[in-house]
Specification:
- This protein is an alpha+beta fold and 228 residues long.
- It has a domain at 17-27 and 88-228.
- 55% of the residues lie in helices and 21% in strands.
- The chain is built from 7 helices and 7 strands.
- The strands form 2 sheets. The protein has a 4-stranded antiparallel β-sheet with strand order 1-2-3-4. The chain has a 3-stranded antiparallel β-sheet with strand order 5-6-7.
- Helix 2 (27-50) packs antiparallel against helix 4 (61-84).
- The longest helix has 49 residues, at 153-201.
- It is rod-shaped and about 135 Å long.
Length: 228
């Protein structure tokens, strides 16, 4: 990840959160739009205008200028839209950023919520261009998070998987520590309770009432006195 990406997208995360990677769509996405927009929006209309007297007589020149300016503004907007339509990989979550001119939409996916990762090849040339669709399957939910035509898909999905495994490992070690300590405390408490119950329930009782009760029981038919 370059420093410009880190500085530019830091406004979308908290100050104490570290950005590990910014996953962009492949540059072929914007190049395709630029070429189409530039050709059909600027070159072709300009060519037809300058070489057609009928069009010149029908459409004033300033209209063509306004149209070309609008085409270039659209061109710049498409570049910004491509650059800001990303996944931001932090230490705690994946941020799915959807940018528009007047607003932006961020969806936060905790690594704990990720059930599985998927790569989709939509075209045979995807492997050559190194662009695949990356899909995050969310744990316990039916919907998915999709980044189409992701750049360096294998590298980025490996990073996501590595962070997920580290978080699960740390959580397992932490929970294992507490489970072990909990079992120790539970055993100690069970010993204390057992000792208390033994003293409370089985302590020697030499009261007169008990002696009288034992004599009455011994007098009954069929009772054998084993204390003799």
């Amino acid at each position: 990840m370059n420093k410009f990406d880190e500085k530019f997208f830091s406004k979308y995360v908290s100050s104490w959160t570290k950005i590990n990677e910014v996953v962009h769509k492949h540059i072929i996405v914007i190049i395709d739009k630029i070429i189409l927009t530039y050709f059909f929006g600027a070159i072709l209309p300009s060519f037809l205008y300058y070489y057609s007297d009928s069009i010149k007589s029908f459409i004033p020149f300033f209209v063509l200028e306004i149209f070309i300016i609008w085409v270039f503004i659209k061109w710049i907007y498409d570049i910004f839209d491509w650059y800001n339509d990303v996944w931001i990989l932090t230490d705690n979550e994946v941020i799915d950023l959807e940018w528009s001119l007047f607003s932006s939409d961020s969806v936060f996916v905790k690594y704990d919520w990720i059930e599985g990762l998927q790569l989709i090849e939509t075209w045979f040339i995807d492997t050559i261009l190194n662009k695949w669709d990356i899909v995050i399957n969310k744990l316990g939910w039916w919907w998915q998070f999709l980044l189409e035509w992701a750049n360096n898909p294998f590298k980025n999905i490996e990073k996501i998987d590595k962070i997920c495994n580290e978080i699960r490992k740390n959580r397992k070690e932490k929970h294992g520590f507490w489970e072990q300590n909990f079992e120790t405390v539970l055993k100690a408490l069970s010993g204390v309770v057992e000792e208390y119950l033994w003293k409370s329930w089985y302590k020697k009782d030499d009261s007169e009432e008990k002696k009288a009760l034992i004599k009455e029981v011994k007098k009954k038919w069929g009772v054998i006195d084993l204390t003799k």
